From TrEMBL, chains A, B:
Keywords: DNA-binding, Transcription, Transcription regulation. The lineage of its organism: Bacteria, Pseudomonadati, Pseudomonadota, Alphaproteobacteria, Acetobacterales. The keyword DNA-binding applies. This is cAMP-binding transcriptional regulator. Residues 169-245 form the HTH crp-type domain. InterPro entries: cNMP-bd_dom, cNMP-bd_dom_sf, Env_Response_Regulators, HTH_CRP, RmlC-like_jellyroll, Tscrpt_reg_HTH_Crp-type_CS, WH-like_DNA-bd_sf, WH_DNA-bd_sf. It holds the Pfam family cNMP_binding.
Length: 255, 255
DNA sequence: GGAACGCATTGATTTACATCAAACCATCCG
DNA sequence: CGGATGGTTTGATGTAAATCAATGCGTTCC
C-alpha cells in the first residue's frame, strides 16, 4: 500500500500566503504520501478535476491556520508534519483535543464555523480544499465519503479513549497511555520499527495541554518513569521506551 | 419536520429476547419519531427493503445492550429514551462518554469490536440493524451515508467540547456546562420550551461518571448552586434552572 | 409495620496535582 | 564572548476534589 502512485497535480504553480510573513504555497504536487489521504481515495485519474480546488500549503512550526470560531471556509488533508487541534477557554486555559498526522482530515464540521483551532507543531504540509466544493466533491466521489465516515469513526473512538483518560486516569496513567499511543502511531505500516525510540514533535506544554495536566506534572512524571527504568529521556524531543510491559500495566490502571 | 409520515414496517411481528428475563421485541413499528432517524433518511417507500434487517427492541432501565470489546454485530438507532455510552478501566473506574437520545446512531465503529459499552438509562427503544448488511445499506441509500457522516461530525464536536470540560474545567464549571447542555437538548425543535424545568433521566452517579467527578462532588456542587440561587433541586430527577446567565458565566470559566 | 436497599446529602480528613519559585541548559544573536 | 530567550527540571507550598464516614429518605418487599 505504501508504494501506490504518487498523485501529481498537473496545473501550473500558484503562490499564496498564510498570515503576515506567512507560508508560501503552490498547487498540491504530492497530495498523497500515505494510503489514507485524499488522492489515494479518489485515484490519480481524477486529479485534474480537483486541481483548481486543492492547494498545497506549507505551514511553519507554531503557525496557526484554523481559528476556533472563525467561518469554516476550508477543509484540509494533512500530508506531512504534525498538527495540534485545540479548544480554549476565555481565560486562556487550553485543551489539545488531538494531534493530526499525515492522512488526517481537518475541518469536517457541519457547522459554518470551526469548532476548534489548529496550529502546526513542526513544519506541516496540507492540501487545502474549499468547503463550498465539498458537497460536489462528495457527490462525485462516493469513495471519499466512505473514507471520511471511516475517518470520523476512528476519531470518535480516539476521542472516547481520550475522555476516559481525561476523566478517570491518574497523571502517571495518562503519560503512560500517551507514550504507548505515540509508539503505536510511529509503528504504522510503512514506517520502520524503531525499537522504542520516539521523536515527539511537541513540547512538554503541548503534552500537558493534551493530557489535561501541567508542564510540571508531565516533567515530574517522565522523571519518575526514568527512575523506574521504564523510559530514557534524551536530548530535545527524544524519548526511548525501555519497557513496554511496565507502561502497559500503568496505562491500564493496574497500579 | 416533526409531522413527517411515521415509518411502518409491514412485516409480521417477531419476538426476540435480550439477556436473561430480558426485553421483548417486535419488528420496528415506528422506527422514526424525529427527523434525524434512519427512516426519515431513507424514506417510507424503502422500508420493505429493510424489514428483514431492522428489529425494534425495547430495553428496560439499567440493562446493558452493548458490551465494550464484544464483537460488533449490530448497529442501532435510538427511537426513544436515553442511552448511556461508557468505557471502563479494569479496576472499575468508569467514564460515560455520552448520552444518546432519540435519533442517535450507535455502533458506527469500523472495528470488529465495540469500543464502548451501552446501557439504557430509562426505558429505551432502539432499531437494531445487522452490521453485515450495513455496507449494502450504505450502497443502496447514499443519503444514509451522508446522514451518518453528519452525525459523526456532530458527535466529534461534542466529544471535543467534552475533552475541554474534562481536561480543563473545574467542578463548578463542569456541572454548569452539563446543565446548560441538558437544557439546550431539551429545547430542540418539536419540544415545548419548559421554562428551565429539566427532567434528568440519569442518577448522580451517572452525572459524576460523565463529568469525571465523584457523586459527592456533584451533589455538593448542586447544593452550592442552589445556595447561589442558580437552580432549584426538586424531588427525584427534577432540576429547575433559575438563572441561565449565572450558569453561562460559570460554564465559560469567567469565574 | 419495619427491615433492607438504592440513592442522595452533608461533614471531616486526606491527597494528587496545581501553583509558586528557582535553577538549569540549550540556542540564538548583537 | 555574554546576555537574552524559551523550554525543561526540580523543590516547597497550597488547594480543589477525592476519600472516608455518617445520616436521611423514598421504595420495595416480607
Amino acid at each position: 500500500m505504501s508504494d501506490m502512485p504518487s498523485c501529481q497535480f498537473e496545473s501550473r504553480p500558484r503562490r499564496i500566503v498564510i498570515g503576515a510573513g506567512g507560508a508560501q504555497t503552490d498547487f498540491c504536487t504530492t497530495c498523497s504520501v500515505r494510503p489514507t489521504s485524499v488522492c489515494s481515495v479518489i485515484g490519480p485519474d481524477d486529479i485534474s478535476r480537483l486541481s483548481d480546488a486543492a492547494v498545497e500549503t506549507i505551514i511553519p512550526p507554531g503557525r496557526g491556520f484554523i481559528e476556533e470560531g472563525a467561518p469554516a471556509t476550508d477543509f484540509f488533508n494533512v500530508t506531512s508534519g504534525t498538527v495540534k487541534l485545540f479548544k480554549a477557554l476565555p481565560d486562556g486555559r487550553r485543551q489539545i483535543t488531538g494531534f493530526a498526522s499525515p492522512g488526517h482530515f481537518l475541518g469536517l464540521a457541519v457547522s459554518d464555523n470551526y469548532a476548534f483551532g489548529a496550529e502546526a507543531v513542526d513544519t506541516v504540509r496540507v492540501c487545502r480544499f474549499s468547503r463550498d466544493k465539498m458537497a460536489d466533491l462528495l457527490d462525485d466521489f462516493p469513495k471519499l465519503e466512505r473514507r471520511l465516515l471511516e475517518e470520523a469513526s476512528n476519531e470518535l473512538v480516539a476521542a472516547q479513549n481520550q475522555m476516559l483518560l481525561l476523566g478517570r486516569k491518574t497523571a502517571r496513567e495518562r503519560v503512560a497511555s500517551f507514550l504507548l499511543d505515540q509508539m503505536h502511531a510511529s509503528q504504522l505500516p510503512g514506517q520502520e520499527s524503531s525499537g522504542g525510540r520516539l521523536h515527539l514533535p511537541m513540547t512538554r506544554g503541548d503534552i500537558a495541554d493534551y493530557l489535561g495536566l501541567t508542564i510540571e506534572t508531565v516533567s515530574r512524571t517522565l522523571s519518575w518513569m526514568r527512575s523506574q527504568g521504564m523510559i530514557e529521556v534524551g536530548k530535545g524531543y527524544a524519548i526511548t521506551i525501555l519497557s513496554v510491559p511496565k507502561l502497559d500495566v500503568l496505562a491500564a490502571g493496574n497500579t
